[in-house]
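anyone seen this seq b4? input:
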Amino acid sequence: MLKSLSHRGPDDVALYVDSPYSAGMTRLAINGLMDGNQPLYNENKNIVLLYNGEIYNSASLKRSLIQKGHIFSTSSDGEVICHLYEEKGLGLFAELDGMFAIALWDKQQRKLILARDHIGEKPLYYAKPYAKELIFASEIKAFQASSLSLTLNEQVIWDFPSFLWVPEPNTIYKEIQALEPGHFLICDDAGIYIQSYISSATALVPSDFTAQDIARYTSEIVTQAVKSRLMAEVPVGCFLSGGLDSSIVTALSSQAQNGIHTFSIGFENLIDPYHGNSDESQQAKFLADKLGTFHHAIHVNAQDFKDLLPQFCHFGDQPFAVSSGLGILKIAQKAKEVGVKVLLSGDGADEFFGGYSWYPYQQISRNTLHTIHEISFASIGLSLQDRAKAISQLTRQDQALAWHYYAHENEKGRLFNKNWYVDKLSSNRYFGSLNTLNDDKFPLAFLEHDRIFYFPNEMLTKVDRMCMAHSIESRVPFASKAVTDWGRSLPYSALMQQGILKVPLREGFKDLLPQEVLTRPKHGFNVPIDHWLRHSWFDLLQHTFSEQSALFKRGYIDKSSSQQALKMLNEKHKLHGHTLFCFIMLNMWLENEYNRNYC
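predicted toks r here
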């Protein structure tokens, strides 16, 4: 199991056994380089810690604990967890500012405690083969390497093309669950139980705060989050697209620390009617030059990314088809080559400060309801305004899928074998809670759903898995609990004004960034997937929908699926590239899984 996780930690391997508990980890050394090998302990070694992550407020916690008489034996940030457990018990997790997957063994009480950070930056999975038996790991690969018998979760396979990923807490295997963000799990003689450690109370922005106050506080809290996430005894870098979010993180990082490396991807600059220009490398270079960073512009083409797909599939761990992850994988490779071990990302700003281009359209009132029409944000045959009007007439749960996600139920039904999916639940079930909301409640609820569903499942998964593929630690300042709590406290009207998105960030950092960055429209890292599938990646599509594919052999598709795929690929009024790419990556994953089990 440990060997399967060596990419997540090539610097040390630890084993710990205290029957009936046995565990191990592979360490990526970022802090406490000389004395931070794990396990970590309290003074008398009856509290034993294995953990993945960083505790950014460890210095202040350590000072407080020393004042209370605790004695530290290492310089590792993680050691505070052991001592804090002695002081706070299970209340310790709410005290931590950081990202973490924790396994804490209490020798006296013969109790194992697993815990995951509040937002889900670090992965943690578990399986319960028997009532009082537990297996846990950071990736699915470790379970595949164990003796655990695994069964494919076919409902998840149906859901996959709608999202490009597997929605947690489910996984591709029925026997394995993800520990949800902000939760701990206890395993002892009484059995296994799980509980949230996040307070349900929601703070509100003070009533006397002006727009200027909101901008000022946003600047302060984001600045603190970025600076704290520079904590490292190794070289640090930043993803830099040239857009607002990565520019804020990069500018603050370079202001706080000399020698920051920046990384961008450049490739053929196609005009995509859904995304606009593909290539943003010149915008990234513009800001890097202004900030004086050590900039690395990585230029790739369709073949470069095609060659990466087997690696992308392997390190995605489960079926995963977020094509922008290919760019992250390539950047992580370059970062490793130049000696950078930590990369800061701008992810999360869109979800917590209102950055997606469709957010302003959530306020359109509904007149009639339609539930079948296959309209979506990718329906390029309509103007954005007409798309917005049509989508607004759907049920709330259908709106959520249409704006932000991919395959409609009917579209998947044309590609999958009808005899196979007849008993599958609709993927729209994930948005059912939105259906009861009236017009004034829906916009903010839609953002909140993105924060707890889309952000951890797509953005945090993507950056963690693709960075860790090359033993690079990713850090996401906008995922800081202080930042996410502040974003949640802001009313919808403070986030977007007259079509301008992320107003608190634009106003809060207007003195830090060039005007060109502040006024640049939202873009995102967009791979021209539809164009490539029609041309240099077409053979991948042909194989996926052939009778030689794992999808066909397992009965997930039939002979008619190939014709339907070609029809969707060439449709003029809607872009289906990501849906088709899902089937390609699902087939590639299944072929690997088939070889592992049966060859």
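The radius of gyration is 24 Å. The longest strand covers residues 47-55. kinda curious what u guys think
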